[in-house]
Write a structure and sequence with these properties.
single chain, mainly alpha, Hypothetical Protein Ta1238, Chain: A, two-stranded antiparallel sheet
């Protein structure tokens, strides 16, 4: 049965078994990770749709790579949710951070210099990438609050370090979304819509 009625009074269980209010910062944080995962699913669907609209040559290979990257992010976001719900274990590693940095570096090599901010506009794919970027930033802010809270509570050092690593990964994901939005401009042969003061 999909409904259990155990949360009808506004509480829920963490992976540790502890019951907390649904307004608890940990719930807000991993709920935002879940929301972000859904947005990445949408972005992935937009990229797959783009594959069907591009000529079957090098650009399609690029988009396929980006679809795989988005899927990797979605899996890691589930890992992050498990960690934030206090499941034991190492869920996000320094290798994950390094991997996203490599993605960003490769993308930036393909992008022309830009001296103004791009607006989140121009196509569904570009807007979807920016929505992922902004929700990632919200997740990051919540994780900073959680880190402050857990530090004040003298949480286990290993848990604090895992949260710091996860925070770096989330920060890189936001940067990845920005450069991916710019790459979509190139793939779609659209000029970026720049901010005009």
């Amino acid at each position: 049965m999909i409904y259990t009625k155990t949360g009808d009074k506004g509480t829920t269980s963490l992976a540790s078994g502890e019951r907390v209010k649904k307004s608890d910062l940990r719930i807000e944080t991993y709920g935002t990770a879940d929301e972000l995962n859904a947005y990445f699913g949408w972005l992935g669907a937009m990229l797959e749709k783009m594959c069907g609209e591009l000529p079957p040559d090098e650009p399609v290979k690029d988009v396929t790579v980006h679809c795989e990257q988005v899927l990797t992010i979605q899996n890691k976001l589930f890992n992050l949710g498990a960690f934030l719900s206090e499941a034991p274990g190492e869920w996000i590693s320094e290798l994950d951070v390094t991997e996203v940095e490599r993605w960003i570096d490769r993308l930036q090599e393909e992008l022309p210099p830009q001296h103004a901010f791009s607006l989140p506009a121009g196509s569904e794919e570009i807007a979807a990438a920016h929505i992922c970027r902004t929700v990632t930033r919200r997740l990051e802010r919540l994780m900073v609050r959680l880190l402050d809270e857990l530090t004040a509570e003298n949480a286990e050092p290993d848990r604090l370090e895992q949260l710091r690593i996860s925070l770096r990964w989330v920060n890189r994901i936001s940067d990845f979304c920005y450069v991916l939005s710019r790459k979509c401009n190139i793939l779609l042969e659209k000029s970026p819509i720049l901010w005009k003061k």
